[in-house]
Amino acid sequence: MKSHPIIAITIGDPNGIGTEIILKALSKKAIREIYRPIIIGPAEVLREQLGLLSLNLTLEEVNSPSNSGSTNTIAVLSSGFAKGFKWEPGKESMSAGAVAGKALEVAAELAMMKQVEAVVTAPISKKVFHLAGYDYPGQTEFFAARTQTTDVVMVLLSENFRVGLATTHCPLSKVSALLDQEKILRKVQIFHRDLQIRFGIVHPRIAVAALNPHAGEDGLFGSEEKEIILPAVSSARALGLDVSGPFPADTLFARFKEKKFDGYLAMYHDQGLIPLKMQSFGRAVNYTAGLPIIRTSPDHGTAFDIAGKGVADSGSMEEAIKLAVYLAGRSQAS
Q: Do 285 and 296 meet the contact criterion of CB atoms below 8 Å apart?
């Protein structure tokens, strides 16, 4: 078993805060001693940003993850990136989207080839990601497509508060049409499997949130609970999974500390992420369940408004790295 897993860290949108929070996180020696990081992105951008930060770091360009063994330097894999990218903090540009996309391509390939044990992705701008020709709603969907994974679950977590999403980046007006029994059952099964295999929870307990207020109030406020969500929960229970619900989301999440659930499945993005971020904003982690590789990410975006100012908080990036290292270690041991 490898004692120090190799963790690939993608640069994200180079005009956002990704580079800053990566360098700040990697400057914490206590974190770096438990793994071997390799940053995926143009070295010149990293060096320019490093020059503005008072950090005791030395960057070293390498040609493969296997060369990322020095404890005194941070490995950077920058081959394949177009030369001459101009760093413009806070600016949305197609060239920045191209850098972000290329970093994801390289990281996905390395992970699938088992040259790295996990991938941590810095934030990207979905707008410029699309402008650069990457037709995906986000990084979660990108990794699903690149690994040829039929379905995944976006999970936000902080310590033992884990929230999976039945739907992700879509208009609220389309959520109901995107839900069906099979989809919810599949999401529950993926979530359940990862809680068991990746997190080591032998008998995961999952709570499923309702879509409508008061869980539909017996059909008065909507029929999705009776017609879709409850049958999916019943199917999951028939398969032997410890799944409960649908529960009214307001009381379910308001009392999460009292309930002994290992995971929660929300029906849409903000329903699940508002309570999670109210509890742990700046320390929560985005994890993609269902992938054949380990992928984590900070719980925030590019923060263009503070990019290049040196004031970004690296806390969520640090937690994303720690979780990736933990999961990679469990994977190595299994």
A: yes
Q: Per-domain residue ranges for the chain? A: 1-149+291-334, 152-287
CATH 3.40.50.11310 at 1-149+291-334, yes or no: no
How far is 231 from 77, CA to CA, in rounded Å?
48
Return the closest-CA partner of residue 31 out of 66, 71, 77.
Answer: 71
Using only the alpha carbons of the chain, give its radius of gyration: 20
What fold characterizes domain 152-287?
Isopropylmalate Dehydrogenase (3.40.718)
Amino acid residing at 220: L
Question: Contact at 8 Å (CB) between 133 and 164?
Answer: no
Report residue 65 as tokens.
């993850």
Alpha-carbon gap, residue 227 to 158, rounded angstroms: 32
CB-CB contact of 321 with 31 (8 Å)? yes
Residue 80 tokens read as 């394949």
Instruction: Give the C-alpha separation, 28 to 44, whole Å.
Output: 22
- What the block records as the tokens of 305 is 């408004």
Cα separation, 187 vs 177, in Å, equals: 16
Can you give the pLDDT of all 334 residues of the chain as single tens digits?
456 899 999 999 999 999 999 999 999 877 777 889 999 999 999 999 999 998 989 999 998 888 766 667 899 999 888 888 899 999 999 999 999 999 999 999 999 999 999 999 999 999 999 999 999 988 999 999 999 999 999 999 998 899 999 998 889 999 999 999 999 999 999 999 999 999 999 999 999 999 998 886 777 788 999 999 999 999 999 999 999 999 999 999 887 777 789 999 999 999 999 999 888 888 899 999 999 999 999 999 999 999 999 999 999 999 999 999 999 988 876 6
